[in-house]
Amino acid sequence: MPQNKRESLIYTVLMCFVMVFWMSMYNVTLHMGSPSLDVLREGWLGFPIAYIYAMCFDWFLVSKLAKGFAFRFLVKPESSTLRKVICISSCMVVPMVIVMSLYGGLEMCVRTGEWGQLGMIWLTNIPKNFIMALPFQLLIAGPIVRKVFRSAFPVGSVQ
Which of 12, 87, 113, 115 could anchor a disulfide with 70, C-beta 3.0 to 4.6 Å? Predict the structure, then answer.
């Protein structure tokens, strides 16, 4: 887990990259029907704006709320590292899915011009995204990003 603000920023940049890239590909695949090179192209073209949107929400709002909730109700500072990681990661996924599902709905409405459908698109995106994002975060992205992060930045190396 990050030990200071700089480590936290680096970790967030890495985690956001992995999660937004994966979820972009997942959502484009859902929309287009099956994985293909077109899915990869569309997902990659939409990635930069989605990444900036996710980073801003993550860094300025969601991480503070998620960590506050986790440490108030779910874990204590003396809890095991694994328990803290699972609780904080889970608490991050819920609001990020809500926020990013709204982004996906907005993106869809911009493409189709059907602004009256925004609420329905948003509400149907939330469960679809949640069932992919939570397991992916806990089982794949989290462990990989933590491993890469600690390999690149051993504890105490970022001041």
Answer: 87
Average pLDDT over residues 123-128: 98
Does residue 30 sit in helix, strand or coil?
helix
**Nearest-angstrom CA–CA distance, 95 and 26:** 18
Length of the chain: 159
What whole-number distance in Å separates Cα of residue 27 and Cα of residue 8? 27
Could you tell me if 58 and 96 are in contact, meaning their C-beta atoms sit under 8 angstroms apart? yes
Which residues touch 38 (CB under 8 Å, ≥6 apart)? Answer: 32
Residues 6+ apart with CB under 8 A from 92: 58, 62, 63, 66, 137
Query: Which pTM was predicted?
Result: 0.94
Distance of alpha carbon 61 from alpha carbon 35, whole angstroms: 33
% pLDDT > 70, the chain: 99
**DSSP assignment string, 65-78:** HHHHHIIIII--TT
Written as six digits, the tokens of 45 are: 């073209």
User: What's the mean pLDDT when you consider all of the chain?
Assistant: 95
Report how far apart the first and last C-alpha atoms of the chain are (Å, whole number): 15
For 17, 107, 108, 154, the CA distances from 63, given in Å and listed in that order, are 15, 24, 26, 22
